[in-house]
Amino acid sequence: MRLTSTAPEDDRRIAQSYPHPFQGAGHTEARQVPVLLHRARDAMATQMRSIFDPYELTDPQWRVLRLLSIVDEIDAADLAARAFLLGPSLSRIIRDLSERGLLARRASEEDARRFLHSITPAGMKLVREIVPQFDPLYERIERELGIKNLQHLNATMERLAEILSGTP
Q: If we measure between CA atoms, which residue out of 65, 37, 39 comes closest to residue 51?
């Protein structure tokens, strides 16, 4: 049996004969949320990346270093959850940052299968060098949005996260 294809004009005509999937679906404002969140995240990541790129750090590596700079020690599962990383990605990041002397790893005294991670003095020095470079970005955001709008945005984003995660 031979399959035939239709001409592009016929494909368009057939497609146009069906209603658009979102036509009459409502929830217009809610439908914009994923796109706007993605757009804002990409814009913020681009700004931040320009700061830590010269240090040959990726966004996930920076998140790990930043988290390690505020805790004494943390195991891989907690670190992955708090940095929003999957295990395999975190394993590579830990390896790379360890090779650069920015983090240390040791076996837990209670469970030798569990490893604890901490930032090294070199890692802390790097974090302290990078963090102030974010100030102009944060100042610009505060200046252009205003504190009240930022407080509202932060509260709204927290609430959205609660709604989507099923937390009351």
A: 65
Q: Residue 60 to residues 92, 94, 107, 109: CA-CA distances in angstroms?
A: 10, 10, 23, 28
| pLDDT, tens only, 138-161 | 999 999 999 999 999 999 999 999
- The backbone torsions φ and ψ at residue 58, rounded to the nearest 5 degrees and listed phi first, read -90, 165
Q: Which of 146, 68, 75, 136 is nearest to 106 (CA)?
A: 75
Lookup: tokens for 92: 């590579």
Q: No. of H helices and E strands in the chain?
A: 8, 3
Give phi and psi for 119, each to the nearest 5.
-85, 145
Question: CA-CA distance, 61 to 53, in Å (whole number)?
Answer: 11
**Which element (helix H / strand E) includes 115?**
strand 115-119
